[in-house]
Amino acid sequence: AGAETVKRAVELDLASRFQESLVCYQEGIDLLLQVVKATKDEAKKHRYRQKISEYMTRAEDIKKHIEKEKQDGKYHKQIRIEENATGFGYEKLFQEYLSEIVSEVWVEDPYIRHVHQASRSSLYNFLRFCEMLVKGPCQVKTIHLLTSCEEGGGRSQQINGLEEIQQSLRNYGVTLNIAFSSSIHDREIRFNNGWMIKIGRGLDYFKKPQGRFSIGYCDLDLRPCHETTVDVFHTKHTKKM
Questions:
Q1: Which of 66, 133, 160, 218 is positioned for an S-S bond with 140, CB 3.0–4.6 A?
Q2: Where would I find the H helices in the chain?
Q3: From CA 208, how far away is CA 53, in angstroms rounded?
Q4: Hey, CA dihedral for 147, 150, 154, 160, is it positive or negative?
Q5: For residues 83 and 227, is the Cβ–Cβ distance under 8 A?
Q6: Is 155 in the same domain as 85?
Q7: 230-241: string of b/e by CB count within 10 Å (b at 16+)?
C-alpha cells in the first residue's frame, strides 16, 4: 500500500498537481515507516530508509513551493464535494484560512434570503457561518454581506432575519453591513488576510435532513451535501465591494 501511494504521489508530482501529491507523499511515507518497523532484514530496512529519505526531501520541497505560491498570490486549491458526502461543515472548509489576523470578511451570495425552514434555510446557514467567525481563532470585527432581495411577502421576513443577525453580532462586537443587488450572481467569500473561497452552490450546499430529529439536523459535519466544487485562491490584494 505504501509503494502504491508513493507511486501515485510521483505521478501527481510529475503532473504538477502538487497539493494532491504532497498528501500522497505524506500518506506513503507513514505507510513505509510502518513497513520499516515490521521488517527484520537490515538490508531491506536500509533500502526503505533511503527511499523514505528521498520522499521526505521531495515532500519538503513541494511544501516550500506551495508556500511560495501562496506568497506570490498564485495559490489555487480545488475541493470536490461529492453527492451525499458528509464531513464538510463550515469549519472543515474555512477554519484553515481563518488566522488570528482576520478582522474583516466579505460574503457575496445571491441566496441569503430564504427563511422557510431552519433545517435548509440560506439565512440560517449564513447565521451558522457567522457563529463560526465569532468562535475564532480569528478576530472578526466587520462582515460585509451582498445578496439579493427576497420577492413578495418573503422580503420582510428576510429583512427581519438579517437585522436580527446584525443585532446579535453587535452583542459580540461585530458589525454586519448588509447590501442588496438585483444583478449579483457570483458566490464568493473573502478574508482580509488574502484568502478567497468560491463555492459553486454558495453557503447552501447541504441537503434537507430527513427529519427534525435526524442526525445531521444540527451538526452540519454530519449533513449530506449536494455535489459542488470549492475553489480556494490566495491574492495579496483582496478586492472590496
A1: 133
A2: 2-14, 18-38, 42-72, 90-94, 122-135, 154-170
A3: 48
A4: positive
A5: yes
A6: yes
A7: bebbbeeebeee
CA distance 191 to 196: 6
> Coil, strand or helix: which one is 77?
strand
**Cβ pair 119, 154 in contact under 8 A:** no
Contacts of 55 (CB under 8 A, 6+ apart): 6, 9, 25, 28, 29, 32
pLDDT tens digits for 201-212? 999 999 988 888
Same domain, 9 and 85: no
pLDDT tens digits, residue range 113-168?
A: 865 544 446 899 999 999 999 998 889 999 999 999 887 777 888 899 999 999 99
Give the separation between CA 223 and CA 206, rounded to whole angstroms: 6
205 and 93: one domain?
Answer: yes
Q: What pTM was estimated for this model as a whole?
A: 0.69
Which residue, 47, 72, 97, sits at the end of a domain? 72
Q: Which residue has the cell 441537503?
A: 207
In total, how many domains does the chain have? 2
Note whether residue 108 is domain-resident: yes
